[in-house]
Backbone:
């Protein structure tokens, strides 16, 4: 009878190898479970990548070999060069600002009771699709302050410090005593004391008149003074009203500035009352009355957020609105893992809060910050939806990015060879960043 020792003696047959994985599952069974995923991965990832690489070396028809001509177009085509430049701007600024805001939010929300509620609000945009976010910010950046929130705020701040004119469209009608001068209007003849002056204007819609405007009144003559009326000389209805004289339904130009000018110098000035009447002293006798250009300055309409110069920063702003919450949550998780003893030790040693943040918190969070920044870099290299939806057709060329240019070349311009070259180029840009991220994650796991 063989003993256990004899079974393990030299020359004895080796026991059969186990065909189970570390989890106890047979490798054959594990492979069968992985097979559907591998098939999908090959069909949806490997095959498209391989086909794109091959197609990038063929011409527009797909029959003729083009060599590297499609890749040369990446650096000679004006649209692709603009897209490449914008992608550099995206990669530099979007991840940096989003990560910085996420860090600030994560640190500050630790110190307030309602920090959880604030995190929820900041993270909420992540639940919105890029399509919905694009539509939201297309409305936010609308040029009309009555529609676009950005310009409504901007115009409100501007008008707090620089008052807008109430009569930007006002101008003299036919047979008017006024003529144009330097953006404003001036009387054709000098005025005299005791003789009322009529300054009729048209062009302001009734609903655009100042809220304080009252029914225009014919000025009365006053000895030793210049009197007059500035009013909207227009009454609705054909053939209704008297031209050159205030009618019962016509309103005065409340607040209209009027200057008396002699030899090019202003000798007196005033503003019209709510009913349009005004009075100037005797020294205005013989002067011409001028309505300066400030009365007719166009109302400030805000910034052209989606114009050629601001469209890319505006779209980056919408991206940051969405992804700052993502950065905040990851950084907050890393922040929770920092030993509090280190922070307290720094404070005991005399460090203030800024020094603790800069010399202790940030260095300890460096691995998390790197992962967040690199992840966002990968994301912005593929950005498409926001640019396609937010940028209007007039400035889409200025906001162009590589993913959008790939779409345009492949579908709008029917150049699949160049589109495939852009796709391969994007893949080459993403691979090093992905490799860096995976390597860092593996290093963190080993620790």
Residues:
């Amino acid at each position: 009878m063989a003993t256990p020792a004899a079974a393990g003696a030299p020359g004895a047959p080796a026991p059969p190898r186990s065909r189970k994985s570390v989890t106890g599952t047979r490798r054959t069974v594990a492979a069968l479970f992985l097979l559907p995923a591998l098939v999908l991965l090959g069909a949806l990832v490997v095959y498209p990548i391989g086909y794109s690489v091959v197609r990038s070396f063929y011409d527009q028809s797909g029959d003729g070999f083009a060599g590297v001509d499609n890749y040369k177009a990446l650096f000679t085509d004006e649209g692709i060069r603009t897209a490449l430049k914008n992608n550099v701007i995206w990669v530099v600024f979007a991840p940096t600002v989003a990560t910085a805001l996420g860090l600030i939010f994560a640190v500050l929300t630790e110190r307030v009771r309602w920090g959880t509620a604030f995190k929820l609000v900041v993270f909420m945009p992540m639940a919105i699709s890029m399509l919905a976010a694009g539509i939201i910010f297309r409305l936010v950046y609308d040029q009309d302050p009555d529609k676009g929130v950005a310009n409504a705020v901007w115009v409100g701040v501007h008008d707090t410090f620089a008052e807008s004119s109430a009569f930007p469209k006002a101008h003299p009608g036919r047979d008017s005593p006024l003529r144009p001068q330097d953006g404003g209007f001036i009387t054709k003849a000098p005025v005299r004391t005791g003789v009322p002056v009529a300054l009729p204007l048209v062009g302001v819609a009734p609903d655009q008149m100042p809220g304080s405007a009252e029914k225009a009144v014919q000025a009365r003559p006053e000895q030793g003074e210049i009197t007059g009326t500035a009013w909207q000389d227009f009454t609705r209805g054909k053939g209704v009203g008297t031209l050159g004289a205030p009618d019962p339904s016509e309103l005065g130009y409340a607040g209209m500035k009027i200057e008396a000018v002699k030899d090019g110098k202003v000798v007196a000035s005033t503003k019209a009352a709510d009913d349009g009447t005004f009075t100037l002293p005797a020294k205005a006798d013989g002067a011409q009355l001028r309505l300066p250009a400030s009365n007719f300055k166009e109302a400030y309409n805000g910034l052209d957020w989606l114009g050629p110069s601001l469209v890319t920063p505006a779209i980056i702003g919408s991206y940051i609105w969405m992804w700052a919450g993502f950065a905040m949550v990851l950084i907050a998780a890393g922040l929770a893992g920092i030993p509090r003893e280190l922070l307290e030790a720094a404070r005991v040693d005399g460090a203030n809060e800024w020094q603790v943040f800069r010399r202790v918190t940030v260095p300890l969070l460096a691995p998390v910050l790197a992962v967040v920044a690199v992840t966002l870099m990968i994301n912005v290299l593929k950005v498409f939806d926001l640019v396609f939806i937010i940028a209007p057709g007039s400035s889409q060329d200025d906001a162009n990015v590589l993913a959008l240019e790939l779409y345009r070349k492949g579908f709008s311009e029917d150049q699949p060879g160049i589109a495939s070259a852009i796709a391969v180029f994007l893949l080459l840009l993403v691979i090093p960043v992905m490799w860096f991220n995976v390597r860092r994650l593996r290093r963190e796991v080993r620790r």
Q: What stands out?
A: Confidence is low (pLDDT under 50) at residues 4-8. DSSP finds 13 helices and eight strands in the chain.
